[in-house]
Amino acid sequence: MIAYNPKDWSSHLFDIRGSMVQEIFGRVVVSVIWATIVMLAYEWGCTWLAVQPTMHTIMATALGLLLVMRTNSSYDRFWEGRRMWGAIVNETRNLGRGCAVFLPQDRQLAARAIDWTVAFSYASMHSLRGERQIGPVASRLPVEEVTQVLDANHVPLAVAIKISETLRTARDRGYISDYLLAMIDQNTQLLMDYIGACERIHRTPLPFAYMVHLRRALLIFCYTLPFALVQTFEWATVVVCFLVSYVFLGIEEIGVEIEDPFGCDANDLPLEQFCATVERGLQDLIAPTAASESH
Fold it and tell me: What global pTM score does this model have?
């Protein structure tokens, strides 16, 4: 995600990265070239190319409504993804807090549970991106367990099982009661609920028919627009077609960019920052332990 100052207009006028210019450049250029060809043909005597703009006026209204629905649907998915990752950050903190507070007798076991909790955030990020990793915390965990987790079909689930197994070990050793085990493990269950919600967003694109119809309508509108403008605007038709194509195609591409916000695009959620936040916060729970053991 690109960090920016929403109050500063001047610095964003010529931004390229994240502005959808590169993504729609080819389509806009084709629209401009086509408008130029239509204008040349009109000047060479093909006056029959000019049509009344009534159809395009009506069509522009319908397209505007479709684009609003498209971007609203995409932003809902983007915001839902942000909510779920905010909840993941909160629940990892709750889980880490519970492990640090209720396992004072075995700091090594508490640190292990906390490390697996950190691993869950990294595993979730990489799983949503089609990767199989658990982040830098893997170096602090048993090699055979890390290998077992990475070989699992669903890495975040395998990590969650390791968290629950660590809590069960604490119960078996008499450090926590069954009630505390159930209470702390409730955070693990919530983590699985949140990653499941993210996977629902990731694996459920907008309906194919809606996407295809909108794109066909956009192309038809942009590439027939010169016929409606050529008689009135003459050579200014090229400029108008450029502006209309840039605006309409750009809005549609923004919807595409943010409908699956878990990737590595410029406008996707900063999942690396979320995972780093989890790791920094939970490492603070382990650091005092290491300091006390050194004394």
Answer: 0.88
